[in-house]
Structures are given as C-alpha cells and as structure tokens.
Amino acid sequence: MIPDHKRVGAGIRMIELCALASGSNGNCYYIGNRHEAVLIDAGISARRIISRMHQQNLDPEKVKAVFISHEHYDHTSGARVLSKRLKIPVYLTAKTYAAMYSVHRPDAPGFFEPGSEVSTGSFIIHPFLKNHDAAEPCSFRIEYNGFNTGVLTDIGSSSDQVVHHLNRCHALFLETNYDEKMLWEGSYPWLLKQRIASERGHLSNDQAFELLENHSGSQLQMVFLSHLSAANNTPEKAMNRFREMVNKYKILPTSRYAPGEVFTIA
Ligand SMILES: [Zn+2]
Ligand SMILES: [Zn+2]
C-alpha cells in the first residue's frame, strides 16, 4: 500500500529533504522546514553546495548550521568555506575536528558529544556513534515537530544505536554503497575491497536492504539510497535491490553529479 504522505504528515507544517550530493566522492544532505534548514556534511565545494540549492529552489539563507559526521574529505571538504560564506556554525566532535585536514577545519567550530542532542532552531539533532574507520564517526537523526529524518551513511556494520534511531525515522538517507558482486569482481586492490566490506567500512545494497527489512518502523515513508560507490555500484543495481519495497515506501536514488529530487511533506 502506498502511504498517504499528507495523512502521515498531518500536524507537520512542512519539511523538505534533498541529497545535494551523495556518493563516495562527496556528501551533503539538506533537511529544511519553511523557515530554517540544517545540512548534514559538506563534502563538495561551498560554491557547488550553494548552486545546487539554488538549482532546487532551496534557499541557502535558511541554513542555520552544518553537522559533520566524520573527518573523511567526502564529508568535510566544503565545510570551512561554507561556514564563512553563509556565516553559520559547523558542529562536529572534538575528535573529528582533530582528525580532519587542517585546511577543511572550520574557523569557529561548535562541538557536540555523540549521544547528546543539539538544538538548532526548531530542529533537534541526535548524533550517535556508528561503526566506521574514522576517529569518532557519527550518524544523525534530525527531529522536527515529531518527524524524524535519519542520515545513515558510512556504516560498516549495524549496531544497537543504528537500529534504535532507524526505527524512529519517517525518512532516511540510507547508505547503499556497493553491490557485492561488483566489489569482489572489480578492479580495486584486495586490501581496499576488504576495508570497504569490513565491519568499519560501508553498507552494501544487501546489508542496507536487510537493515530496513528488519528494523524500519511502521511510520517510515521515504528512503533515499545514498553514498553509492562509482566503481562498485550503479543506481539501477541499488534500486533493483529495493524493488520489492517500492509499494511500501517512496524510494529514490541519489547522485554524485547533481542534486537529487526534493521530497516535500506539506
Ligand atoms: Zn563517505
Ligand atoms: Zn567515511
């Protein structure tokens, strides 16, 4: 049954979701309401983040803060300049700040602790630890007026925390990094293949599907398939893996090359 977005969203004034960039070379996710927005990660240039927002009729002036998940450059490379350009804070953990390239470090960082919520305007950001090969990798659940959006990428293996937050989400940016066959039969060096598939690497299409099948809540409406590898996955393969769920949720692919479709709940 196709969920009735209007009915499920009753009481929510308006929320817009967009993957401005998603993939293993750059990530930036937009979560906004009528007056405010937050970005999760800024892993493409500030110029491209702003131009992609304009392209999708999203107002950069609404962005109140950027939250950084971990230090890898595909999540951090635009953070410092974006913060200066939009005059907004960048929130991250102290360990992430210490581990990131100094040229990407924001001039005036705001620090959060995994497990402690942060309020930004009318959004409540819940950061939580995940399994990934970084100093202090976090994922986020963003709560607004009872509507929860999860940004769950760069996860080597599930955990109680991931399950706890995923289960509460109405919408998800969910990592589908690689197709198992493409990874193992592909040209990457053996050690890199092992790193990607490890407990501290990335979620495959199959792992993401299982996570969703076993742990999604009944309120889930929308899933963006996110952080696809260019070498080890295709949007078609990821979408095909989730084809049996398309009558249950709206499922959209994301892209590294262009901003994704804006999903709006009115
Ligand atoms: Zn990444
Ligand atoms: Zn990473």
Characterize the structure shown.
The radius of gyration is 17 Å and the shape is globular. It has helices spanning 5-8, 46-55, 73-76, 79-86, 94-99, 160-166, 180-185, 190-197, 205-215, 235-241; strands at residues 15-21, 28-32, 37-40, 63-67, 90-92, 109-111, 118-120, 123-129, 138-144, 147-152, 171-175, 222-226, 250-253, 263-265. β10, α6 and β11 form a beta-alpha-beta unit. α2 (46-55) crosses α4 (79-86). The relative contact order is 0.17. It is built from ten helices and 14 strands. The model is unreliable at 1-10 (pLDDT under 50). It has a single domain (15-255), classed as 4-Layer Sandwich (Metallo-beta-lactamase, Chain A), CATH 3.60.15. 27% of the residues lie in helices and 25% in strands. A seven-stranded mixed sheet has the order 6-5-4-3-2-1-14. A seven-stranded mixed sheet has the order 7-8-9-10-11-12-13. With 266 residues, it is of the alpha/beta class. Bound molecules: zinc ion (2 copies). One zinc ion is lined by residues 24, 27, 72, 74-75, 154, 227. Residues 24, 27, 72, 74-75, 154, 227 line the site of one zinc ion.
